[in-house]
Amino acid sequence: MKIGELGDRCGVTAKTIRYYESIGLLAEPARTAGGYRDYGGEAVERLTFIRDAQATGLTLAEIASVLELKGAGERSCSHTLALIEGHVATIDAQLEQLTAARAELASLAARARRLDPSACTDPNRCQVINEARPQG
User: Fold this and answer.
1) For domain 1-58, which architecture applies?
2) What is the pLDDT of residues 52-104, one digit of tens each?
3) Residue 107's pLDDT band (boundaries 50, 70, 90)?
4) Distance (Å) of CA 119 to CA 111, 115, 126
5) Comparing C-alpha atoms, which of 92, 2, 12, 98 is closest to residue 60?
6) What CA–CA distance (Å, rounded) separates 51 from 74?
7) Apex CA 59: angle with CA 53 and CA 60, to 5°?
8) CA distances (Å), 11 to each of 2, 27, 100, in order?
9) Theoretical Cys-Cys bridge with 58: which of 62, 65, 71, 110, CB 3.0 to 4.6 Å?
10) How distant is the alpha carbon of residue 9 from its chain centre?
11) Tens-place pLDDT, residues 16-33
12) Using only C-alpha atoms, what is the Rg of the chain?
């Protein structure tokens, strides 16, 4: 099949397929007599895996590491688990940061509702933000 058909089957663009080939995620296929790329069914399977792995949050480098293990005939489950657990830890840390940021913003919003707008006379600062943190 030609690159456009492969892309349509897998939900990616021809440009993406060419990029994956250029970085070694997808093997360059044989060419037709007219010079067109000629992909087989294995390209559909590999490209579908790459797309699905990206959807889980794995980076292309991480996906390449899984595919390298598979290509060497090794099992990749423990490696993949470690990658996924790393992403879970990163998301947990981001959630903690977002929760703290939300709490601070909610506190600022509550403060802003209590302040008297007519008391805001500094031409360079907003009293909501200026007085929110202790000076030190």
Assistant:
1) Orthogonal Bundle (1.10)
2) 999 999 999 999 999 999 999 999 999 999 999 999 999 999 999 999 999 99
3) very high
4) 14, 8, 10
5) 12
6) 21
7) 85
8) 14, 18, 38
9) 62
10) 22
11) 999 999 999 999 999 999
12) 26
Half-sphere exposure of 119 (CA within 13 A, CB side): 9
Fill in the amino acid letter for 2.
K
Cα separation, 120 vs 136, whole angstroms: 21
Query: What is the token pair recorded at 136?
Result: 């030190």
How open is the CA angle 20-26-31, to the nearest 5 degrees? 105
State the residue for tokens 């907003």.
Answer: 126
The identity of residue 16, as a single letter, is T
Measure the CA–CA gap between 20 and 49, rounded to whole angstroms: 12
Handedness of CA 43, 49, 26, 55 (dihedral sign): positive
Q: Structural domain boundaries of the chain?
A: 1-58, 75-116
CB atoms within 10 A of CB 99: 10
